[in-house]
Write a structure and sequence with these properties.
Keywords: Membrane, Transmembrane, Transmembrane helix. The protein is α+β, with helices and mostly antiparallel strands. It has one domain (2-63). Helices cover 59% and strands 19% of the residues. It has helices spanning 2-17, 19-23, 47-63, and strands at 33-38, 41-46. A hairpin with a 2-residue loop joins strand 1 (33-38) and strand 2. The longest helix has 17 residues, at 47-63.
Length: 64
């Protein structure tokens, strides 16, 4: 259980770091992607973009 929690936490940190790069392609602006400011820092919770990227990765994995 704790391993999955660490994986999810690392994925969110990584996604938060590459978010400015992905915003140019339209990710992070979908309905269901949350953006807020907390402690003087901007945070993203990209629920819809994560689902979209997961579906894309699954389709590519199934195709290969």
């Amino acid at each position: 259980m704790i391993r999955w929690l660490l994986v999810v936490l690392l994925a969110l940190v990584l996604f938060n770091g590459v978010m400015p790069w992905l915003r140019r392609w339209g990710f992070g602006r979908l309905p269901g992607d949350f953006q807020f400011r907390l402690f003087g820092r901007e945070w993203f919770i990209p629920l819809a973009s994560t689902v979209l990227l997961s579906l894309l990765a699954a389709a590519i994995a199934r195709w290969i």
